[in-house]
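Late entry, written up from scratch paper. The run itself happened at the end of the previous shift, but nothing got recorded in the book at the time, so transcribing now.
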Amino acid sequence: MLPKPPEVRLWPWTACYVALALTVRRGNALLVCLCGLAAVTAVGCGGGERQDENEADASYDVTVVDATFPKRQRLAQKSELAITVRNDDTEAIPDLAVTLNGIYRRLDDPKLADPNRPVFMIAGVEKQIGGYPEVKLAGPGGGPTSQAGTWVAGKLGPNAERTLRWRFTAVRPGPFEVTYEVAAGLDGKAKAVLADDSPPRGKLVGTISSAAPNSRIAADGRTVVTPLP
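Output as recorded:
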C-alpha cells in the first residue's frame, strides 16, 4: 500500500501580505515552513514613499553653471567632481538628480563574470549613526538611488543654485571620460532642459597616471600630507 500523502494546510496571515504556512505531517513528525515571511514583511510593509512618488509631468529650465574634475590624476589620488546647477524656472524642481557614467569601464572578456571594472572608487567619509562610527559615501547629500549611477540632491527652488560634489579615488590608469546628465526627477516625467530645450549634459575627460601620488601619513596617523608640486 502506498503511504498516505502529506497533509497540506493553508493558513491566512494577518499582515500586509498573505503568507503561506505549510504543515506537513508524517507519523508523529511535524515540519512547519514559513516561506520567507520576514523578508516579505520587510519589503511589503511600511516601506515609505517611492523616490519618484507623484512626480509632475513638466519641464524645468536649468543652467549647468560649472562642472569640474581634475584632468590629470594619479593612482590612489583623491579628487573631487563638482557640478553646479541653477534653476532658471519659475517653479521649483521637485528632485534634482544627476547621472554619472564612465566611473566604470567595461572589459570585452567573456571569461569575466562581471566585465565592469572601476576606474574610480567613491571615497567614504566618517559619520556618527546612532552614536556609532560609520562610513558614508562621499557624494551629494540626497544619496544614490536604485538607478545605476544616479544621485539626488532634493528640491531646488526658482533662481537657486546647488553644487553636487563627489569624492573619488583613481584606481585604473589610462584616459578617462566621465559623462553627466541632469534631471528634475527620477521617473522621467519631470525633465530638466537648457535654454535651447536640449538636455543638460556634458563630459569630463582626462588621464590617470600609473605613478602613485607622493604623499605620506602625518604623525597623528590620520592626516595625509601631499607635498606641493
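The chain has one helix and 18 strands.
(Scratch paper discarded after transcription.)
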